[in-house]
């Protein structure tokens, strides 16, 4: 008898728990959707790769079923997914008022609990201003010639090889440049390979958060631990032997840490350095790879880009002199191409926030404490916003705002958290494109596929054969390449 009663109580308890999971409390009407299985939610569907340029199937299927705003559950957390341009705009503009930056615990574990994305208010603004010290317009003006030199040297090296895997090659190029600016890192002189730790980190960044030896997520955390150990060792070395002349961002951070009235802590400084090293090279190398692929597949676009950059050379008094800031700012079509590349590529397809209070939008209520995921691909690839959205068409930007974020363009975020590295990314892309289209030809040789994940896009296996234009013209008379 008692056994039957106990069983009945367990069944009632489980039934009630399941009911509450599938029907969350809300002081209004929740957006439509499914919470999936208890605890697991719809996480497995969310993490499924997407081998197309189009909106991820997880999102696209639910838009058809529920509309532009729907609810789900990811890694045990209730989430409202927004593909609505108006709601996305409110989310970005109401930072600190209605919403605040938030990421799942697995992301926080990976990027650090004191990372800049998890900080708010004055502390976030303080760190943002510090980063602008490195990536602001005045610093980029001084960096222009170095960026061009690095691109030219690497392209020359790649042209001497049979072929290069473009994503890996550009990632190494940008990582070495960025690490030099941040921490004076020289891979040839260092006893440890800092880049290898980030490779392990990236491979498990967007994976199911299971920290068990052998899983991608575990390897990701191990990569972070090793990279952080190296950074902390460098910090101790700088403290033991301070430099008389400040020459990199690490010196600047150390100076801030040593100030008696500074609000900067060592944990925040280390997490900031880690995030900057990752973000500054990984996303840019992805964008360059996608741009080169799209250019080769669209000869008309390549011709227009080449004409713009050859015109810059023709208008110089000295054709061998380097790029000037005025020439860089004159690259109108190049900036259109960059915007079109990042719109189509959707390198960061998900941006997370958290509702600070119950928020009513249209007929729905987003409960306080719920996570909100802005989904840029669904906006960037919506035919109501962009005619023939899957077409690579830089000319569409002739009639559109190219300077920042808008309701229909959020490749670099928006609002107060608009990416501070945007100008640095555009500079590196524009300079690299200038160097390659004015001096080289290239072709894709074997392999190559797009594999999208919920957090990043990975162009895999894009091997390119690069040839100097003058050299190719000479070879074509005797032994043209097929």
From TrEMBL:
<dbReference type="GO" id="GO:0010268">
    <property type="term" value="P:brassinosteroid homeostasis"/>
</dbReference>
<dbReference type="GO" id="GO:0016020">
    <property type="term" value="C:membrane"/>
</dbReference>
<dbReference type="GO" id="GO:0020037">
    <property type="term" value="F:heme binding"/>
</dbReference>
<protein>
    <recommendedName>
        <fullName>Cytochrome P450</fullName>
    </recommendedName>
</protein>
<comment type="similarity">
    <text>Belongs to the cytochrome P450 family.</text>
</comment>
<feature type="binding site" description="axial binding residue">
    <location>
        <position position="419"/>
    </location>
    <ligand>
        <name>heme</name>
    </ligand>
</feature>
<keyword id="KW-0408">Iron</keyword>
<dbReference type="Pfam" id="PF00067">
    <property type="entry name" value="p450"/>
</dbReference>
<keyword id="KW-0812">Transmembrane</keyword>
<keyword id="KW-0349">Heme</keyword>
<keyword id="KW-0472">Membrane</keyword>
<dbReference type="GO" id="GO:0016132">
    <property type="term" value="P:brassinosteroid biosynthetic process"/>
</dbReference>
<keyword id="KW-0560">Oxidoreductase</keyword>
<dbReference type="InterPro" id="IPR036396">
    <property type="entry name" value="Cyt_P450_sf"/>
</dbReference>
<dbReference type="GO" id="GO:0005506">
    <property type="term" value="F:iron ion binding"/>
</dbReference>
<dbReference type="InterPro" id="IPR001128">
    <property type="entry name" value="Cyt_P450"/>
</dbReference>
<dbReference type="GO" id="GO:0016705">
    <property type="term" value="F:oxidoreductase activity, acting on paired donors, with incorporation or reduction of molecular oxygen"/>
</dbReference>
<dbReference type="GO" id="GO:0016125">
    <property type="term" value="P:sterol metabolic process"/>
</dbReference>
<dbReference type="InterPro" id="IPR017972">
    <property type="entry name" value="Cyt_P450_CS"/>
</dbReference>
<keyword id="KW-0503">Monooxygenase</keyword>
<keyword id="KW-1133">Transmembrane helix</keyword>
<dbReference type="GO" id="GO:0004497">
    <property type="term" value="F:monooxygenase activity"/>
</dbReference>
<dbReference type="InterPro" id="IPR002403">
    <property type="entry name" value="Cyt_P450_E_grp-IV"/>
</dbReference>
<keyword id="KW-0479">Metal-binding</keyword>
